[in-house]
Amino acid sequence: MTAFPEEGNTVRRFSREQKTVTHEKEARRGSDAGERELIEELIGVNRVAKVVKGGRRFNFAAFVVVGDGKGRVGFGSGKAREIPEAIHKATDQAKRSMIRVPLRDGRTLYHDVNGHFGAGKVILRSAPVGTGIISGGPMRAIFKALGVTDIVAKSIGSANPQNLIKATLDALSQVDSPRSVAARRGRRVSDMLGHRAISQR
Question: What spans are recorded as compositionally biased (Basic and acidic residues) (predicted)?
């Protein structure tokens, strides 16, 4: 009789489908848990007006920085008729645009970097333990979301928050760890640092 093999196949198929659904649920739970651990910093909300036929239409523009406190950070902006919706859009965009920045000992940069965007220019310098975050405005929000606890940052030129944020992200995108530099040059990490003992991250 063919009924028993078919029943067995059905059971096996159901078992595989059940496992797949379970794995998908676990993946979603893991993703939700990861999002709950993100640090969200609201940089600001501006009221913007658009001239249309019959008058002006007002919207709100929100700017948000998101990070995991462990070397990942992103920036996003969003516009909407209501402030909560604008913040939600900005947060979603920030999550999608996150970049990874290698951190020395999980607290500062491996080396000094400069960044610019438009008329905004920034200088970021690594700092010893206990220095703290020496910077202000939106730059401080980025470092907090990134997980940096010791850094000296200076802005030159435009004080526009968006320019400062994008200039800071431009600088952070240039940070390299000794390991990645050594791999790119085909050398050992100890060779890159004069045989000094370092924490490889």
Answer: 14-32
48: three-class secondary structure by DSSP: strand
CATH number of the structural domain 39-98: 3.30.160.20
Q: How far is Cα 153 from Cα 122, in angstroms, rounded to an integer?
A: 7
N- to C-terminal Cα distance for the chain?
62
137-146 vs 161-172: helix axis angle to the nearest 10?
40
Q: Which of 123, 127, 115 is nearest to 171 (CA)?
A: 115
What residue spans define the domains of the chain?
39-98, 100-192
Convert the pLDDT of each residue in 103-149 to its tens digit: 999 999 999 999 999 999 999 999 999 999 999 889 999 999 999 99
Distance of CA 78 to the CA centre of its chain: 16
Provide the whole-model pTM. 0.73
